[in-house]
Amino acid sequence: MTDALLADLERGVAPLGSAIVAFSGGVDSSVVAAVAARALGGRALAVTAVSPAVATGELDGARRVADAIGIAHETIATRELAREEYRRNGPDRCYHCKTELYDALAAVAAERGYGALLSGANADDAGDWRPGLRAAAEHGVRHPLLEAGAGKAQVRELARRLALPSAEKPASPCLASRIPYGTAVSPATLARIDRAERNVRALGFPVLRVRHHGELGRLEVAADDLERALEARADIEGAIRAAGYARATIDPEPFRSGRLNAALQAPAPVRAPRGGSR
Question: Which domain holds residue 24?
Answer without folding.
Answer: 2-161
